Amino acid sequence: MLTQAASPNLLPRAAVAPKERKMFNVAPVAIGWGVLMAIYVGLRFYQQAFAFKYGLDSTTPEFATHWVTLFKLEVPLIFGTGIVMWLYLWMSRDKHMDRLSPETELRRHFNLVAWFIVYTFSFLWVASFYGEGDATWHQTVIRDTALTPSHIVLFYACVPLYIVLGVSTMLYAMTRIPRFADSFSVPLIMAVLGPGLILPNLGYNEWGHAFWLTEEIFSHPLHWGFPILGWTGLALGGVLLQVLMRMAELFKQVDAAMPAAAE
C-alpha cells in the first residue's frame, strides 16, 4: 500500500512549535551607544576645532557665534527631546499590569537592563572623560565666565543627556514593571536623582568660583558636591540586585509554564 508523506500544513497544531521571541534585543542598545558616541565624539571634535580659536574671550563676536549659539541650541533640543520621551513613556504606560504574564514581565526586565546599559554609558562619559577635561581646561586657561567651551559641552549637553536617559529609565520601570510601579525603589531613585542633582549643583559651583575661589583645585570643598552626587550612581548595584532577584523568580515561572503549554 502506498503512503503519502504528510504535508507540514496538515500536521496537528500542537506539533508545530511556536516561534520563540527574543528575551533581550541587543539592537536598541547598540543604536543607543552609537548615537551617544556620535554626539560625544562630535562635540569633542568641535571643541578641538573652535575652543582655543574662538573660546578664550567670551566678549568677542566669534565666541557668540560658535559657543553661545551652540548653548542656545543644545539645551532646548536635549530637554525638548526628553520631554517627548517622558510623555510617550507615560502616555503608553501599562494600565493593566495585574494581568501581566511572567514571560512579558521577564522581557520587560530585560528591556529595563537595556535602558540601564545606555544610561550608565552616558553617565560614564561625563564622570570620566569630560569631567577631567573640564578641570584641565580651567587649570590651563582660567575661566572668564560661567559659559566656557568646556562647560557648554559638559554641563549643558552631556549632563542633560544622561538626565534625560536616567529619568526615562525610571519612568520605564515605574510604568511597565509591577514591582517598581507598586512601591518606590530607593536605589532606583538614588541612581537617577543623585547624578541629576549635579546640574543644579553647578549653580553653587559657579557662585563659588566667582566670589570665593577662582582656581580649579580638585580637593577644594567647592567641588565636594560633584563626587558625592556622582557616587549615588553606585546605587545601580542595588537596582541590579532587585532586578536579578525578580528575574530569577520569573524564569522559574516561565519554565514551569512551558510543559503545560506543550501539552
Question: How does this structure look, described?
Answer:
The protein has 263 residues and is an all-alpha fold. It has a domain at 61-90 and 105-253: Particulate methane monooxygenase subunit c2. Chain: C (Glutathione S-transferase Yfyf (Class Pi), Chain A, domain 2), CATH 1.20.1050. Helix content is 73%, strand content 0%. The radius of gyration is 25 Å and the shape is elongated. The model is unreliable at 1-19 (pLDDT under 50).
Secondary-structure map:
Blueprint: H1 26-54, H2 61-91, H3 102-141, H4 149-176, H5 178-182, H6 186-196, H7 198-211, H8 225-231, H9 236-262
Short description:
With 263 residues, the protein is an all-alpha fold. The protein has nine helices and no strands.
Secondary structure tally: strands: 0
Gyration radius, rounded: 25 Å
Number of helices, where a helix is a run of at least 4 consecutive DSSP H or I residues = 9
What can be said about the biggest beta sheet? none
Reported CATH architecture of the domain at 61-90 and 105-253:
Up-down Bundle
Q: Write out the CATH superfamily name of the domain at 61-90 and 105-253.
A: Particulate methane monooxygenase subunit c2. Chain: C
Backbone structural class: mainly alpha
Shape: elongated
CATH fold category name of the domain at 61-90 and 105-253: Glutathione S-transferase Yfyf (Class Pi), Chain A, domain 2
Enumerate the spans where pLDDT stays under 50 for 5 or more consecutive residues: 1-19
Order of helices and strands: HHHHHHHHH
- Spatial gap, N to C terminus: 33 Å
CATH class of the domain at 61-90 and 105-253: Mainly Alpha
Mean pLDDT: 85
